[in-house]
Amino acid sequence: MFSLFYGLWKYMFSKTEFHVLILGIDKAGKTTLLEKLKSVYSNLEGLSPDRIVPTVGLNIGRIEVSGTKLVFWDLGGQPGLRSIWEKYYEEAHAVIFVIDAACPSRFEDSKSALEKVLRHEDLQGAPLLILANKQDLAESVSSEELARYLDLKKLDERVYMFEAVSSYDG
Ligand SMILES: Nc1nc2c(ncn2[C@@H]2O[C@H](COP(=O)(O)OP(=O)(O)OP(=O)(O)O)[C@@H](O)[C@H]2O)c(=O)[nH]1
Ligand SMILES: [Mg+2]
């Protein structure tokens, strides 16, 4: 009897857990963003930016916002690590794609990485949030300017949003 209730309970609550993948090329600010989210939305103290090193494995962050459990998967963005991303696509419900808006010389790299993500069949239909990060820096471009630059043809068919943020300021 107990196991029946436990099974039901697990079924009901596992439904309210959402997996969010945080992707983007190296140094975009993915881990800094995750640590900031942890500090703001949970009572765990996130790592301060000076203690964050380039990601090689996987960082997991769990937060709860108005009753919904969000599980964030933050992966490494170095070129040799990007092939690992697709292993997580099947179980992901949404994607946050982070771009360093203060580094135009790497926009092209971000654009092709993002286009590859959008083409993958396991992510068709997944909502997408594109973040123009590092808005605290004077040289950063706005989210509109970044959207114009990326000129993503495939975006029209999906739920997506551009947002300007700073992982430092929150
Ligand atoms: N000024 C500024 N710097 C930032 C911001 N977010 C991240 N950084 C800096 O950018 C660098 C890279 O940040 P990470 O969070 O390690 O980047 P990442 O995307 O996780 O990189 P990988 O793990 O290698 O894929 C670090 O020096 C951060 O302190 C931001 O909003 N503003
Ligand atoms: Mg990282």
Keywords, please?
170 residues; alpha/beta; Rossmann fold; 4 helices; 6 strands; globular; binds guanosine-5'-triphosphate; binds magnesium ion; protein transport; transport; GTPase activity; magnesium
Furnish the topology, listing elements before pairings.
Layout: H1 2-14, E1 17-23, H2 30-41, E2 58-65, E3 68-75, E4 94-100, H3 107-119, E5 128-133, H4 143-150, E6 160-164
Parallel strand pairs: 1-3, 1-4, 4-5, 5-6
Antiparallel strand pairs: 2-3
The structure holds guanosine-5'-triphosphate and magnesium ion.
Residues 24, 26-32, 49, 52, 54-55, 76-78, 133-134, 136-137, 166-168 line the site of guanosine-5'-triphosphate.
CATH topological fold name? Rossmann fold
The CATH homologous superfamily: P-loop containing nucleotide triphosphate hydrolases
CATH architecture: 3-Layer(aba) Sandwich
Class in CATH? Alpha Beta
